[in-house]
Amino acid sequence: MSESIKNSPPPDPNQHFxxxxxKTDLKSRSxxxxxxxMITQGCKFVLNMGSTVLLARLLTPQDYxxxxxVATVTGLVGLFKDMGLSxxxxxKAEINHAxxxxxxxxxxxxxxATMLITAVIAPLIAWFYGEPRLIWITLVSxxxxxxxxxxxxxxxxxxxxxxxxxxxxxxxVSMLIGVATAIVLALNGAGYWALVLMPLAMGMSSALGVWVxxxxxxxxxxxxxxxxxxxxxxxxxTGFGIINYFARNLDNLLIGRYWGAQQLGLYSKAxxxxxxxxxxxxxxxxxxxLPTLSRLVDxxxxxxxxxxxxxxxxxxxxxxxxxxxxxxxxxLVQLLLGSQWGETSRIFALLGIAGxxxxxxxxxxxxxxxxxxxxxxxxxxxxxxxxxxxxxVAGLPWGAAGVAASYSxxxxxxxxxxxxxxxxxxxxxxxxxxxxxxxxFVCTTLGTLLVLLGFRKYVEVxxxxxxxxxxxxxxxxxxxxxxxxxxxGRLALQDIKNMVVKSKP
Length: 505
Description:
Radius of gyration: 23 Å
Subcellular location: Cell membrane
Order of helices and strands: HHHHHHHHHHHHHHHHHHH
Distance between the termini: 37 Å
Helix content: over 70%
Number of helices: 19
Transmembrane segments: 64-83, 104-128, 134-152, 164-186, 192-214, 226-247, 270-293, 314-335, 347-368, 380-398, 404-423, 435-455, 461-483
Number of strands: 0
Membrane topology: Multi-pass membrane protein
Keywords: Cell membrane, Membrane, Transmembrane, Transmembrane helix
Shape: globular
Protein name: Lipopolysaccharide biosynthesis protein
Number of domains: 1
Largest sheet: none
């Protein structure tokens, strides 16, 4: 036994960094990874939805509003703990131990600095909103930045190696721990503290999980290790993230400042409920798409084909769900949140209009990052962010519903065309490609919406659960029927059939 151990080859020091072995069966790895992450997101969706339903009945809109006030600010500060370095690790063709060790310690330093800055500004947050309770909420929330800094590079390495099974286990277990913590606290009358401590429990368990699963251990930081290009890439991503975050969260800031915790609670819950299905589908696809496209960047035709096929499946999954949620927003809010959240349904439906093509907009980030166009992404942040901010201010006099309506209108009519033009100026994917892949699904979605609105108008259903079940069936049947009437739709469905057949053993 000792002789066999003695003669066994030493572990490969670069096993966590090399990706050449992935290219031999990249397509099958991507399909398997997509399947694993979709199953994972399904589990997370059930946990998310279950906790949302239960916590919405145990807590009040004001509880959510208080935490939302702090989250608007801490979320912006929290962008600095990563500095875009996780994406740089995934995207870069060649990396080594010295580089990743250096980035790890930089992330730790950034996370500690972020925690301290958040603690310092806690009194300012409380003063801005006129709510003393926000001081302690902010101080406790700041602790979570430490766990984030400790996991950034480990998660990036797992993603780079396309180890989606390991990431799935970590995500589900940490989410279970976080949800269980929140529910126990809420049942024992902890109020808004249940929402504050839930992400801390998730962050702590996630940090432990990635260190166990990854196996890589950082060394000391090394000067002149060749991380300058990665830092520049990360800086541009962080710049975009700051602008984008400010643009996306200024609505919460303005509503909380001028309309109070109640209106902010209703608005933030509508937005969170809207993003729940989008994120559950978009996140796993993104986790597979970015490393896949990064490995294909030197093959433009394969790159373009891969991106368009991924986006096609993304739209096929998200658009029917979104149109169903828009048409049944009042039923869904009553079922999931309870009667005290009734005002949320109108806000939810208005935001859902923008949500129809939000997944396609999110996918443009894969193009920027995989093509090493982080500087372009930064510049787009100014364009899109400014437009979004104008829409928030324009709708603010009419409260949360006015902000939601103004944002959706500007997003569909102004931001999306600008984004397609800006991304398609260079690279394998051109502006016309976005419209070609989107067109059949827009037609199908509009037709499905008309059928659902007709059902709501002419069929009386007293039970929201039965109404949602019938409406969901109508959505799926109508969407598929209309899609099959178009050549592009039939090709998309046939492509899915071929993928399913090939994935069978």
